[in-house]
Design brief:
This protein is of the alpha/beta class. The chain contains 3 helices and 8 strands.
Length: 128
């Protein structure tokens, strides 16, 4: 068994698609109309056949409540691995991404947290 799709709740699919592709550099894999919304998945350019990230509308009350509560508690919705966190922090900052935590070493990992403009906090991590 392996993970093929994981989702993140977003307030606006178009805004999320722009942020995740233009700022974070993910590649759109699927964009399929599904009634009022779309099935939009993204993949890493480093692994185009890897796990897909679904930009899921947060329209359901439970989804929006979950999203609001974890954000209010400062909990990232998901994390992405990077090779050089200082380089990625600098690149994203120059693109106007707002960080709530600068790169911080915690044990044998370094993490940073930023806003995705779509209702979520995201974490990047460099291992080792």
């Amino acid at each position: 068994m392996k993970i093929i799709v994981t989702s993140i709740f977003v307030e606006d699919q178009d805004k999320a698609l722009a942020f995740y592709t233009e700022k974070l550099g993910f590649i759109k894999k699927h964009d399929i109309p599904m009634g009022k919304h779309r099935w939009i998945t993204l993949v890493s350019p480093e692994e185009e056949s890897g796990t897909e990230l679904l930009l899921e509308p947060n329209e359901h009350p439970a989804a929006s409540d979950y999203q609001e509560r974890i954000r209010a508690d400062g909990i990232p919705a998901t994390m992405f691995g990077v090779k050089d966190i200082q380089e990625e922090y600098k690149r994203l900052s120059e693109l106007g991404v707002t960080f709530t935590m600068e790169p911080t070493q915690m044990g044998n990992v370094t993490i940073a947290v930023f806003e995705d403009t779509c209702g979520n906090l995201l974490q990047i991590v460099q291992q080792g």
